[in-house]
Amino acid sequence: MEVGYKIRSQPEYKGLSWQTRATAHLILAQGSGAKAVINMLHQQHSDQPITLLYSHKLGEEINCDLELKALLHLDQHVFDDEKMMFKALKLLLPFQYMGTRVYVAGSQEFIWAVADIVKAFGIDDADVIKELSGTTARSVYCVHCKAITYRATTNVTECIGCQRMLFVRDHFSRNLGAYMGLMVDAEDPGELPEIEEIYP
Known about the structure:
Structural class: alpha/beta
CATH topology of the largest domain: Rossmann fold
């Protein structure tokens, strides 16, 4: 009987749940990640201060917008793109309470961008509650040219920097927020394995 092997570096996204000992809650959601926030809010409502930063694309996630507005009587900010949200987050973090917990729901790229920002303000990765939403697409770090290719959905992807074809490994770097990518045809140039979509 084959025993499954878990790569230790792979991140675990345990889903959003209230941290009851927190003094305040800072919630960040991207696109369909709003559904994870709505589910958490249906579990219970915290008495501590709650701030929500939500990024959506124009014309999308309208139902989530309306439901969040109906559920939350709190400090809520909606952005049309992540860049604007990240700027607001950096302005907001210096004024957060000691004991604030950070919750983030969205794509892998979004989650680790948030984790990187809050780390600069002294918030450990262990204090960031994460839920992967929408897509399982991977960010891939090229070990050859050091570029990061975002939203890779296949087992082999072209590097955005050096155009090498990279095998997407399961080893993940929290510092880089990306999986490692190695040139797949280094020994036999041009000979590629079957390319499959495995991270939809």
